[in-house]
Design goal:
160 residues; alpha+beta; 5-stranded mixed β-sheet; 33% helix
Length: 160
């Protein structure tokens, strides 16, 4: 039983380590405030509810797909969340492919179809990206957890 696509990768919203750490620190603060609250009224219970709410939202975000990248039949299909448009990139118009770092910053916001400075960016987590340049010089930055595999599949699809 073979794979249906040449390459398939799903990027999740809640799996960025820095964002997970931020949410856990906020939940720990709520739990610490719950324990050390001297005034025993309803505000103490509010800290507990908010702490568990943050943990619950974090667990839900771990399973929410921000976008998925499919490479097959000389095209790349990037499909986002519910109301996001599907982006299709024809590999016949691509001039070059390279692996690169997405950004040198420590904190990067997840983006989908962000047009910025002559490029389109797709990013969820990690630091690696595959950069496609078309004939007009327009660049597509596609964030990925598996840059080597994606790069090799793109090169193979462009040759055939």
């Amino acid at each position: 039983m073979g794979n249906r696509y040449a390459f398939l990768e799903k990027q999740y919203i809640g799996r960025d380590y820095i964002r997970i750490c931020i949410r856990l620190v906020m939940a720990a603060f709520c739990f610490a405030a719950y324990v050390y609250e001297r005034d025993r009224d309803n505000t103490q219970d509010l800290f507990l509810v908010v702490g568990f709410g943050i943990i619950g939202v974090s667990i839900i975000l771990l399973f929410m797909i921000q976008y998925k990248t499919i490479i097959d039949d000389k095209k790349i299909l990037i499909d986002g969340l519910w109301s996001a448009r599907k982006v299709e990139i024809d590999l016949n118009t691509i001039k070059s492919v390279r692996k690169d770092t997405y950004s040198n910053y420590l904190f990067n916001n997840p983006v989908y179809n962000l047009h910025r400075k002559g490029s389109v960016r797709f990013y969820s987590s990690g630091k690696d990206a595959v950069v496609l340049t078309d004939r007009d010089g327009f660049e597509y930055f596609i964030g990925t957890q598996r840059p080597n595999e994606m790069y090799l599949v793109l090169k193979d699809q462009m040759k055939s």
